[in-house]
Amino acid sequence: PRTIRVAAAQLGPIQRSEPRQNALTRMCALLDKAASDSVRLVVFPELAFTTFFPRHYIPDNKELHGYFELETPALPINESPNVKPFFAHAESLGLDVYVGYAEAWKHDDGSQAETTYYNSAAYFSGRLGKVLQKYRKVHLPGVVEPFPEPGATQQLEKRYFKNGDLGFPAFRVPDAVEGSLKLSEVNNNTPATEARGKGDPIVGMLICNDRRWPEGWRSYGLQGVELVLCGYNTTAYAPQLLGSDLHQQQPLTREEAEKEILYHNRLCVTSNSYMNSCFSVNVGKAGNEDGHDLISGTCIVDPKGYVIAEAKTKEDELVVVELDLAACQAGKAKTFDFGRHRRLESYGLLLER
Ligand code: CDT
């Protein structure tokens, strides 16, 4: 069977005042727990190493830049000084990880090179000891200018990051399931997007707000994706940004708003997993961070759109399940056999502004 044991590694809050080391220690503890439960792949949230800093207007550049990890062609994220111990720990346990981070990218190693900032995720292979694929968040939510109201929950991703420029590259993970290529057979020059072994799982990454947009999921679906990984930080109450109460006389209470945000979270990940006949691992940072509530909703979804495992707390929690990737085949061969059933001649509008 093409089975792979995966874990959603939900994180509880990480406060603005907390040093990186605290988060690393907690994340490494989750890795240890996963390893002792024979897990192969551990999925962490968006911007996992720090507080969700885009909720703050941060005029102090030193503080702002402190949330980012430096990356250059010669310095991949797993070597970046702040977070290197986390990747080294995953490698020592032979674990693969998906992890979100704030990327400060210098396209060359010269000190004069310009820096570009992205909201990114890396798929790191603990067996190969390297990043197999990087993803940069395409759908940045929020605004450029901060809301003036004191105490407002900000969402300044459009201010702090550039939109991702890597598209939606699906990739194959070697040596992950039966029938997969063995590590010794992996040719380092083979692009990750190309088939390696017949059985290698096909994986795609999304980040938070991306999960609300079917275009990303379908791009992966068209590449035969079997497993979509998505970390997020979703605020539990932000009436000016999220929710359906624009024309309602009576604004939603905090409780109602959180319930609706959780409902939409689940609606997006279950429907898109079903419509692309893939599993998905969806992982939040949860709880009260810097005085602002984040939803949990961490869940693992099967290709029929059913939630098969979910978090019970708003704290650090590992949700473990074994996936049989063969379960993706029925949907891909029947209802969502794209080659037979898609009607491209009717989709022109999708590529217009
Ligand atoms: N981090 C992120 O993308 N959050 C968005 C909410 C933005 S509006 C408050 C999300 O889609 O969950």
Automatic annotation (TrEMBL):
Q: Which residues form a coiled coil?
A: none
InterPro entries documented for this protein: Aliph_Amidase/BUP, C-N_Hydrolase, C-N_Hydrolase_sf
Please provide an example of a Pfam family that matches this protein in its UniProt record.
CN_hydrolase
Give the UniProt keywords, A-Z.
Hydrolase
Gene3D superfamilies in the record: Carbon-nitrogen hydrolase
Residues spanning the signal sequence: none
Task: Enumerate the PROSITE patterns for this protein.
Answer: CN_HYDROLASE
The source's domain of life comes to Eukaryota
What region holds the CN hydrolase domain? 4-325
Q: Which PANTHER family match?
A: NITRILASE C965.09-RELATED (PTHR43674:SF12)
Q: Output this protein's name.
A: CN hydrolase domain-containing protein
Say which species the protein is native to: Bionectria ochroleuca (Gliocladium roseum)
